[in-house]
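REQUEST ID: PR-0412
SUBMITTED BY: lab tech R.K.
PRIORITY: routine
TASK: structure prediction, single protein chain
INPUT:
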Amino acid sequence: MNTQNNTKKNIYNITFAAMVAALYVVLTFVANSFGLASGVIQVRLSEALTILPFFSGAAIPGLVIGCVTANWLTGCVFLDIVFGSLATLIGALGSYLLRKHKFLVPLPPVLANTIIVPYVLRFAYDMPDSIPFMMATVGAGEIISCYILGLALLFALQPFANKLFKKS
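STATUS: complete
OUTPUT:
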């Protein structure tokens, strides 16, 4: 019986992670169609999903796989695929660790992307803007994505959390 429960839990976690990855890719493509998924000024709608570790740790691999896939499919260079996805991993892990503090959940992705992405833009894409300027623009976009959209998503999902999410 216990093995069957573990198998069901594993299937749930894999399915949930796959759904998160697919949503991340789709939302990145939507943002990309408006020119907002990359560059010095970016508001990735998909980054709102970084609040999902508040509900389930199974969201973490989904976010990372989604970021890797979205970056690859939108034509990002290798350094961006690696380090952009690393920023998402750090942010998702931080969100999971801060899940007991609802209003801090969006903070790790904001910080990770604000610190890492400007260096990716400078060294992978040779963007001429200063690192502090790019930190400000990327950080502003992350605040919009993670705090405004992400917290709105968190509050919209929270009443249904017991039905939608299983603890991983």
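NOTES: The mean pLDDT is 94.
REVIEWED BY: pending
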